[in-house]
Amino acid sequence: MSPADLLTIPFDDWVNFLVRDILVPNFRPFFRAIQVPITGVLNALDAFFAFVPMLITTAVFALLAWRYVGRGMAIFTVVGFFFIDMIELWPETMTTLSMIITSVLFCTVIGVPIGILVARGDRAWKIVRPILDVMQTVPSFVYLVPIVMLFGVGMAPGIIATIIFALPPIIRLTNLGIRNVRGDLIEAAEAFGSTTWQMLWEVQFPLALRTIMAGLNQTLMLALSMVVIAALIGAGGLGLVVNTGLGRLDVGGATAGGVGIVILAIVLDRITQGLGEDNGVATMSLRQTFLSLFRRGSSTVGETKKAG
Amino acid sequence: MTAKLRVQNVYKVFGDAPQEALTRLEKGESKEQIFSETGLTVGVQDASFDVEEGEIFVVMGLSGSGKSTLVRMLNGLIPPTSGHILIDDDDVANCTPEQLREIRRQKITMVFQHFALFPHKTVADNAGYGLRIKGVNPKERRERAVKALGQVGLAAHADSFPSELSGGMQQRVGLARGLATDPQILLMDEPFGALDPLIRREMQDELIVLQRQLKKTIIFITHDLNEALILGDKIAIMKDGQFVQVGTAQEIVSNPADDYVAAFVADIDRGRVFTADDVSNEPAPVKLGQDTAQDAMRSMEELNRNALYVVDGDQVAGVVTYRDLAGAGDQPQDLADAMVTEYPTADGDAQLHELYAAASSGLPIAVTDENNKLVGVVEPEAVFAQLSGEESAAPEPPNAPDETGATKPGAA
Ligand SMILES: Nc1ncnc2c1ncn2[C@@H]1O[C@H](COP(=O)(O)OP(=O)(O)OP(=O)(O)O)[C@@H](O)[C@H]1O
Ligand SMILES: [Mg+2]
């Protein structure tokens, strides 16, 4: 005896109906339109990285690593990028890099304002929070199918899937950063007659910047971990290399792609962390937040490794 | 004199449905009673007071008595539940957010207990924050910020960050930030509460000096009655959200309204609260070359004093004691012969603790102004009586002090 004997719910039919018969026919132009800016940014970046010689790109990243992390990281960047080039994966790596930058850019453009907005009111946060929870718990494979139905296959749908997956941390940490700004500083800013914007720009945002940067770092790592999955729906780059390797049981090819992802992940992770530390002001609680995030950040790298 | 700030029947109740608490307060229920029955916290009840322009109004009370709540209502950081708060003619309690912002930008600023400096801004940018908010251009902003820092002695640290300064210096920056926009009213919520006692003294003295020149209208919050008495032109003592007494330092010390106030007054530092002026008597001098020894003795008997000062025209010439004059018998005697020319003197605003040494000479202390003109006389007994809190004690009958000749040279 089970409830199913009495009643079965055709849940899958409902979803099919919603997506196939309502969303797809009626909102197709809308979903198409969403892709336009993404494709634009992606193509521009892709063309840029294809145009810039490998040595110059490497030099720029090495300099950034030197400036924001240290000499060791600069050396690692040079060696790692040379290795990628020598295993003949440079163009794929640059495609992946373009995808990552595009995803993170859109995550920031969408996530930071949402984070600021939900930090202002508890009601907004009550609505947004469960949505973020769902976004983070639903396995990404689940929304690949509706994305394909709505957006088709290709780079842009891959990036949209990545954005959905990588968006929550930057919203969460922007919210956290803004909320954690000391109450007496808010009070002081208010006592001198700040408008909402002045308060945000002069006090809240600069003081939250460290935490927001930590969120950006996490978002970046999540975006990297989506590279392989996004390749399933037509995104190219290193993810495609890994998938092709898997499909052909070509261990060497898959590993090469994976190693490329890991090198890229380490370089980007350390540089963005360094950027975060360089900005804002050291306060104990923020520093602790940061350290705990650092640990989570490296575990994400671990996951990426497994994926590869 | 015009009242710069008028507070009329202001109430603040924390919690939902605060009206409930107001009706209960009207029925005479107490703060505790209301809290236990409704869960509403009465922060401030029925506060009314006027603050004159250029006056330091001190609100003193124990932790939780509602001081911070009160002062935050004055600039609208906390909206009052009912009542009026009038700055000039604007009611802070009933105005639009835009008006409130304008009032905060133009008229009223605040100094915070824990400084509340912006850690990501330099000292100059902190001091210039209010100007930035008002849209003052960077050059003028910097000039005015540095000028305000100069007033608190920190101009040299303009480009440091707050974390590089000591607590006392940080609060000076807080004060400079409050002064930079040149507001008319300055709210200070326990500004020296987080500083150690020595620095606190220093800051109190500096505030007094600064105030002499700036003449701001200041609302100063403290839980330290000594501080209140030292700084306050007028002092309000607060308990459970209510004012129990409002008055000058002297009124509060000499006439505490109830046991609560009396308990505070019991352990104040009288030596720092009272000045020579507070305990001085009429000078009633005798005049050199005009009054005789007999005149002087008669005068002392009438005034019930042991000694009188002798003036030569406007200037103090010396002091004669009853004992010395009496020692000469009935022979007519020139005052100049019996006069002691080494005598203790003090300024009118000298604090009593500065008079200990002078008072122990046994001679009355001459209170003189900057031209050495005699403006009063302080009997040693009066100093000690005031210090011990027995100022109303009847003056002792004259009995000649011993060894007047051993008087140490005065501070003159
Ligand atoms: N936001 C709030 N919500 C509820 N109750 C509050 C709130 N702020 C203050 N109170 C209550 O109002 C009363 C007065 O608090 P207030 O902070 O004004 O006291 P205070 O005199 O400044 O004390 P302290 O010397 O500790 O700063 C206290 O009972 C406090 O618990
Ligand atoms: Mg307080």
TrEMBL record, chain A:
<feature type="transmembrane region" description="Helical">
    <location>
        <begin position="73"/>
        <end position="91"/>
    </location>
</feature>
<feature type="transmembrane region" description="Helical">
    <location>
        <begin position="249"/>
        <end position="268"/>
    </location>
</feature>
<feature type="transmembrane region" description="Helical">
    <location>
        <begin position="220"/>
        <end position="242"/>
    </location>
</feature>
<dbReference type="InterPro" id="IPR035906">
    <property type="entry name" value="MetI-like_sf"/>
</dbReference>
<comment type="similarity">
    <text>Belongs to the binding-protein-dependent transport system permease family.</text>
</comment>
<dbReference type="GO" id="GO:0005275">
    <property type="term" value="F:amine transmembrane transporter activity"/>
</dbReference>
<protein>
    <recommendedName>
        <fullName>ABC transmembrane type-1 domain-containing protein</fullName>
    </recommendedName>
</protein>
<dbReference type="GO" id="GO:0043190">
    <property type="term" value="C:ATP-binding cassette (ABC) transporter complex"/>
</dbReference>
<dbReference type="GO" id="GO:0031460">
    <property type="term" value="P:glycine betaine transport"/>
</dbReference>
<keyword id="KW-0472">Membrane</keyword>
<keyword id="KW-0812">Transmembrane</keyword>
<feature type="transmembrane region" description="Helical">
    <location>
        <begin position="97"/>
        <end position="119"/>
    </location>
</feature>
<keyword id="KW-1003">Cell membrane</keyword>
<feature type="domain" description="ABC transmembrane type-1">
    <location>
        <begin position="93"/>
        <end position="272"/>
    </location>
</feature>
<dbReference type="Pfam" id="PF00528">
    <property type="entry name" value="BPD_transp_1"/>
</dbReference>
<keyword id="KW-0813">Transport</keyword>
<keyword id="KW-1133">Transmembrane helix</keyword>
<feature type="transmembrane region" description="Helical">
    <location>
        <begin position="140"/>
        <end position="167"/>
    </location>
</feature>
<dbReference type="GO" id="GO:0015871">
    <property type="term" value="P:choline transport"/>
</dbReference>
<feature type="transmembrane region" description="Helical">
    <location>
        <begin position="47"/>
        <end position="66"/>
    </location>
</feature>
<dbReference type="InterPro" id="IPR000515">
    <property type="entry name" value="MetI-like"/>
</dbReference>
<dbReference type="GO" id="GO:0015226">
    <property type="term" value="F:carnitine transmembrane transporter activity"/>
</dbReference>
From TrEMBL, chain B:
<keyword id="KW-1003">Cell membrane</keyword>
<keyword id="KW-0813">Transport</keyword>
<keyword id="KW-0129">CBS domain</keyword>
<dbReference type="GO" id="GO:0006865">
    <property type="term" value="P:amino acid transport"/>
</dbReference>
<keyword id="KW-0547">Nucleotide-binding</keyword>
<comment type="similarity">
    <text>Belongs to the ABC transporter superfamily.</text>
</comment>
<keyword id="KW-0067">ATP-binding</keyword>
<protein>
    <recommendedName>
        <fullName>Quaternary amine transport ATP-binding protein</fullName>
        <ecNumber>7.6.2.9</ecNumber>
    </recommendedName>
</protein>
<dbReference type="InterPro" id="IPR027417">
    <property type="entry name" value="P-loop_NTPase"/>
</dbReference>
<dbReference type="InterPro" id="IPR051921">
    <property type="entry name" value="ABC_osmolyte_uptake_ATP-bind"/>
</dbReference>
<dbReference type="GO" id="GO:0031460">
    <property type="term" value="P:glycine betaine transport"/>
</dbReference>
<keyword id="KW-0029">Amino-acid transport</keyword>
<feature type="region of interest" description="Disordered">
    <location>
        <begin position="386"/>
        <end position="412"/>
    </location>
</feature>
<dbReference type="InterPro" id="IPR046342">
    <property type="entry name" value="CBS_dom_sf"/>
</dbReference>
<dbReference type="InterPro" id="IPR017871">
    <property type="entry name" value="ABC_transporter-like_CS"/>
</dbReference>
<feature type="domain" description="ABC transporter">
    <location>
        <begin position="5"/>
        <end position="265"/>
    </location>
</feature>
<dbReference type="Pfam" id="PF00005">
    <property type="entry name" value="ABC_tran"/>
</dbReference>
<dbReference type="GO" id="GO:0006970">
    <property type="term" value="P:response to osmotic stress"/>
</dbReference>
<dbReference type="InterPro" id="IPR003439">
    <property type="entry name" value="ABC_transporter-like_ATP-bd"/>
</dbReference>
<dbReference type="Pfam" id="PF00571">
    <property type="entry name" value="CBS"/>
</dbReference>
<keyword id="KW-0472">Membrane</keyword>
<dbReference type="GO" id="GO:0005886">
    <property type="term" value="C:plasma membrane"/>
</dbReference>
